[in-house]
Amino acid sequence: MFRPGVRIGGWVLALSALLVAVVLVSATIGPVQLGVGTVAAVVWNALPWVEVDVPRTARIIVMQLRLPRITLGAVVGFGLAAAGTVMQGFFRNPMADPSIIGVSSGAAVGAVAVIVAPFAIPGPLSLGIQTAAFCGALVAAAAVYLIATKNGRTPVATLLLAGVAVQTFLGAVISFMLVHSGRALREAIYWLMGSLHAADWSQAAVSGAISLLCFLFLAAYARDLNVLLLGEEDAHSLGVSVERTKVLLLALASLMTAAAVAVAGVIGFVGLVVPHVMRLLVGPDHRILLPTSALAGASFLVVADTIARSGAAQLPVGIVTAFVGAPFFLYLLRKREVHEL
């Protein structure tokens, strides 16, 4: 029997290798076909101390067109899967996902508001959409938390119900804005479907930095999340500061989700299905489940976006994740693999 540290290292190494392979293969696919060796040479040549002779056209295609989108997809998948893992453990509910406390709905309200009324936030439209979506996501999460908190305590059941109520209300706000969106309707709906078509290196860098920082803090609280699965009273008796831990877990998971949704729109099923699959493979221990789910989510979304952009008519990646995720989740239900945590 492997020690936990060896087991975690083995899984992380294997999934990291898988992610690298998926990224390289994805970068070869497009209107101009490139070989894996060419893509690897372009990436290798991007290092400051390396000089490799690669065609200029290949460098432009890989570094300016494909790799920013692929990198952003990996970052978004990483964040959504990690946040979904935390939410499912926090709520002890297999149906929990990163949007369960209204983060995605809040982001959608902010983004659609700017699309319908571009003057709402000064600056370039794309920056305005991302800023509004990020702020809307955090405001929604904070509102749900404040509504559910009383006398310094935040019951999980109350938090869940508050999240459902706020999501419903924000859904009505989004529908109202769409009805009055006029010519902006197509752009708003496209954003709501989730897409990576406007990706660039700056988006990947900012979203990646936020997600990585949040992930490191969440990883430090993986043991406490394991203990919370036993119940709040048992967790308190084992030395866990329950309310403080709950606030930190919710805040960090919401921040990761906000960073992902702000740059990619609403992408479903990544944070719902991926943690389930990895839980079946590695077990419920969040010390190994959290990093493996995050890496698997990164690979999953890169593959999904590769499929989305491979057709004659490019699809929003959210459509592909729904096509794949919904049937697979139904399969898990039929196999009774989805059960209360």
TrEMBL record:
Bilayer topology annotation: Multi-pass membrane protein
Sequence intervals crossing the membrane: 6-25, 70-91, 100-121, 127-147, 159-181, 201-222, 247-276, 315-333
Superkingdom per UniProt: Archaea
Pfam family, one: FecCD
Coiled-coil regions listed: none
Cellular component, GO annotation: plasma membrane
Cellular localization per UniProt: Cell membrane
Keywords per UniProt: Cell membrane, Membrane, Transmembrane, Transmembrane helix, Transport
Record's keyword annotation contains Transmembrane helix: yes
Cited PANTHER family: ABC TRANSPORTER PERMEASE PROTEIN MJ0876-RELATED, FERRIC ENTEROBACTIN TRANSPORT SYSTEM PERMEASE PROTEIN
Functional note: Required for corrinoid utilization. Probably part of the ABC transporter complex BtuCDF involved in cobalamin (vitamin B12) import. Probably involved in the translocation of the substrate across the membrane.
Subunit and interaction comment: The complex is composed of two ATP-binding proteins (BtuD), two transmembrane proteins (BtuC) and a solute-binding protein (BtuF).
Record family assignment: Belongs to the binding-protein-dependent transport system permease family. FecCD subfamily.
NCBIfam families: PRK09535.1
Name of this chain's protein: Cobalamin import system permease protein BtuC
UniProt source species: Halospeciosus flavus
Organism lineage: Archaea, Methanobacteriati, Methanobacteriota, Stenosarchaea group, Halobacteria
